[in-house]
Design brief:
The complex is a heterodimer. Chain A is mainly alpha-helical. Chain A is built from six helices and no strands. In chain B, helix 5 packs antiparallel against helix 7 and helix 12 packs antiparallel against helix 16. The chains are: A mainly alpha, B mainly alpha.
Chain lengths: 226, 629
């Protein structure tokens, strides 16, 4: 009789040291899927914009005095786009083994992204209208608020990647086994050489952040230009 | 496990103080009050917190958001992200050993998560079922008798919302989480922590919806239409939070499933060898990832209308309630197939096992699943036929809706042809699959009446449409859900379910399901509207018939529950590794499946449907073939 697929019982030895390529593939594919989900989330706001604009119920789509400031909007979107661009350049640096350059660009991208968020908060307080002032105002505040949350989440992801790069910048080989987060019973990392995953994380993050910055540009065109 | 690798387990009191469900509930309650007080300090200080006179929408939202955060902190979901923020490297697994306590904490073993889903969804399914019993009790008489109209509407809304929300993950939650990694020869899901998060978010959502009764309930039914939702009690906020959490959970669940199936298939498992169940999961997951975000977005707009005074759905202030209807059904109709497609897949997965024949038309079946998935995006406006949409649009949506019967027909055809001249074994799972053909046929045929504009104008909003979707969703999904339970639970738990009780459950459920819902077609044709607590006295006999049948249907569920508790809690008869003679890979593993699934990753050489082409393998060699010899 052939050897069975598995014996009863458990063994961490079996699952430790998984090849990092597997989680790398998971991460990159997840960033594509997340982009799809994000697109459909914001399509709802695009639909709301054009639907309410074409209905113009009670002449309340955009009452007099309701106009989003293009200056603030441009500044916010420029920060998002610049941050995403820096991450893309950081990926190129990482691929070319210029790790110092990547870490620097990563930190700057993080700071520029945070500046974008701060500018967005300032912009909300400086618009001359509130969320109750008609259809456009509703779409404007709703869309930018949720874009803010998505960007915040992406910047947290960026921070994690940058932080890992910094923490182990002088480490050759895998990090100590005690640094594996999760189950304290485990004696080794469940991913072989988990630091090698920085590259895959960066590729996935860069794709998603660029995509989100693209949505920000679309929002800029729709909310501020047309 | 080697003894040296395991640290001694801490005492029970120490484990109770750690990150687990108990801590989650305690911190969840604490977080709720922090949010409640915080919102009141934002909106205006008041000491009337504990009276019922000082609700404001923001306090309800922030209280529940605080509760969710506290709950997740208590379960340990924030430990890993905080470690990552401090620069620690990624890892995959948490608490995969530790006995029964794994089931009450963040555990990344996909099999534990599957079983957590089974019990968790079962709990809320039971609550939703109790609501149905109360609804039918009220409808025993044509006039008010038990509940005021507002309470009745809340019961109807809670029943519908609970069932739709929870059962969206009814198959993918328990069965896909448990089985997909095994079926594709993997040791884990792509993102094990996210997998666990989807479950605990769903449990938080269920608790939030259940507590709507403390905030006055909600009057809108499961669709939450504006402008009624803008004007509803604070209990409406519970509905919004519930469905938004369900949407987030569904998106993450779908994302995890797709990533797993696409990137983690074992060597040799090509797309044409993928089990049909995995194809069903994949096509459902695509809908989840793309449709659920639209739900979250529309509910976010609704929440902003109720808190920040935006006017998305207020026609007098530049909004439109039709915006809500459109966006809701952009999600809502794919949602119907999120419910139905896993049922199709289960039927197609089980029929070859119990007819001892290969699955007929594998590629056609896959095409049917993907076709339904694609077409489901082009039909949503049939829900708005009587809402005043442009008349010129009606024919397109009528045709697109009817078009979807073609790929659905593929599934029927493949199923019927698989049965043709098969050596059919009428086991309990097979009986539930066969019932699916009957139920879903009636559900599908009655759907034609609702997709045709002339007949929809008459039947829309009546008990006819209610009968239709119960035939498709309960007849289509819930019957296959039970088929899956009887088929896979012995594998999942290692214990057999009692077959005699299973057959009694099936026959009582099948008879009383039809006895409950078939008369509703007639009641609908006779003009009884949904969500109305009173009805014409001439309809009392039919309504009483339906109510009594519904109570008997409830009893059939109790028979199932008794079987489950009796077989798994008391009898505990060990299940064979492969009780059905299946060729699928999960049945080549011990029952229950070991934590790590496979000692070595298997190599696939064929699909698992080679019945009649040689004896079923008793063992599949590790590192060699799985499935057909």
């Amino acid at each position: 009789m052939a050897e069975p697929l598995a014996y009863e019982g458990t063994s961490y030895e079996v699952v430790e040291e998984e090849p990092p390529e597997l989680l790398g593939r998971n991460l990159v594919s997840a960033s594509y899927l997340l982009a799809g989900a994000t697109a459909f989330f914001f399509i709802a706001f695009v639909f709301a914009y054009f639907y309410l604009r074409s209905l113009n119920n009670g002449g309340m789509w955009k009452p007099e005095g309701v106009d989003a400031s293009i200056g603030w909007g441009t500044a916010v979107v420029a920060c998002y786009a610049a941050s995403a661009l820096l991450v893309r350049l950081g990926v190129a640096d990482h691929r070319a083994l210029r790790r110092d350059q990547w870490r620097l660009k990563g930190v700057v991208a993080l700071l520029v992204g945070v500046v974008g968020l701060v500018l967005q908060v300032i912009a909300w307080t400086h618009e001359g209208f509130g969320p109750a002032d008609g259809g456009f105002a509703s779409v404007y505040f709703g869309w930018t608020a949720f874009l803010f949350l998505f960007v915040l989440g992406t910047l947290l992801w960026l921070e994690m990647t940058v932080a890992t790069s910094y923490r182990y910048r002088k480490t050759d080989g895998p990090p100590p086994a005690g640094h594996a987060s999760g189950d304290p019973h485990r004696e080794a990392h469940d991913i072989r050489d988990p630091l090698s995953l920085v590259r895959a994380e960066l590729v996935g993050l860069s794709f998603y952040w660029t995509f989100l910055a693209g949505i920000a540009v679309v929002s800029w065109v729709i909310l501020y230009l047309i | 496990m080697t003894d040296a690798a395991v640290a001694p387990s801490p005492p029970l009191w120490r484990r109770l103080l750690g990150f687990n469900l108990l801590t989650g509930v305690v911190l969840g309650i604490g977080g709720w009050y922090v949010g409640w007080f915080g919102a009141h300090s934002i909106v205006g200080p008041s000491l009337d917190y504990f009276g019922d006179i000082d609700y404001n929408e923001l306090s309800v939202y922030l209280a529940y958001i605080g509760g969710i955060v506290g709950f997740l902190v208590g379960l340990g979901f924030f430990n890993y992200p905080f470690a990552r923020l401090r620069g620690y490297p990624p890892s995959l697994r948490e608490k995969e050993t530790g006995g029964w306590t794994r089931y009450f904490s963040l555990c990344t073993d996909h099999k534990v998560v599957g079983i957590q889903y089974l019990w968790g969804i079962g709990l809320f399914f039971f609550i939703g079922g109790l609501n149905a019993m109360l609804i039918r009790t009220e409808l025993l008489r044509p006039h008010h008798q038990v509940f005021p109209a507002g309470t009745y509407l809340t019961l109807v809304g809670m029943h519908g919302t609970m069932m739709m929300g929870m059962m969206s993950s009814g198959i993918l939650g328990p069965f896909a989480n448990y089985l997909i990694p095994i079926m594709i020869g993997a040791r884990r899901m792509a993102f094990p922590r996210i997998e666990a998060l989807t479950f605990w978010l769903l449990m938080a959502a269920g608790a939030i919806l259940t507590t709507t009764i403390f905030f006055g309930g909600f009057p809108t039914g499961w669709t939450g239409y504006a402008p009624l939702s803008n004007e509803g009690n604070p209990g409406m906020d519970n509905y919004i939070l519930f469905f938004a959490l369900v949407g987030i959970s569904m998106t993450l669940l779908g994302l995890n499933m797709i990533a797993t199936i696409v990137t983690m298939r074992a060597p040799g498992l090509t797309w044409t060898r993928l089990p049909i169940f995995a194809w069903g999961v994949l096509s459902t997951a695509v809908l989840m990832v793309l449709a659920a975000p639209v739900l979250v977005a529309v509910l976010a707009m609704e929440a902003l209308d109720r808190t920040a005074q935006t006017t998305f759905f207020v026609a007098a202030a530049g909004g439109s309630n039709y915006l809500y209807e459109n966006l809701f059904w952009v999600f809502g109709h794919p949602e119907v197939y999120i419910l139905a497609l896993p049922g199709f897949a289960i039927v197609l997965e089980l029929l070859p096992v119990f007819s001892r024949k290969p699955l007929w038309g594998y590629r056609l079946a896959v095409g049917g699943l993907l076709g339904v998935s694609l077409l489901s995006w082009f039909v949503w406006q049939h829900h708005l036929f009587v809402s005043g949409i442009n008349g010129d649009l009606r024919p397109f949506y009528m045709l697109s809706t009817e078009l979807i019967s073609i790929p659905t027909g593929f599934t029927f055809l493949c199923g019927m042809m698989t049965l043709w001249r098969g050596s059919i074994r009428f086991t309990v799972p097979m009986l539930f699959c066969l019932a699916w053909f009957f139920n879903f046929l009636l559900g599908g045929l009655s759907g034609v009446f609702l997709s045709d504009v002339p007949s929809d104008v008459t039947t829309h909003g009546s008990f006819f449409s209610m009968a239709h979707f119960h035939y498709t969703i309960m007849g289509g999904l819930v019957f296959t859900f039970f088929a899956a339970i009887y088929y896979w639970v012995p594998k999942m738990t290692g214990w057999e379910l009692n077959e005699r009780l299973g057959k009694i459950h099936f026959w009582t459920m099948f008879v009383f399901f039809n006895s409950t819902f078939a008369p509703l077609f007639a009641i609908g044709f006779l003009g009884q509207p949904r969500r109305a607590v009173t009805y014409a006295s001439g309809l009392q006999f039919l309504n009483d018939w339906v109510s009594v049948s519904a109570f008997c249907l409830g009893i059939s569920m109790l028979i199932f529950l008794f079987n489950l508790v009796w077989s798994l809690g008391f009898v505990k008869k060990p299940a064979e590794a492969n009780p059905w003679g299946s060729r699928s890979i999960e049945f080549q593993l011990p029952s229950p499946v070991p934590v790590h699934n496979f000692d070595r990753i298997p190599v696939f050489s064929s699909d698992p449907y080679g019945y009649g082409e040689g004896p079923p393998p008793s063992w599949v060699p590790a590192g060699a073939t799985a499935g057909r010899d």
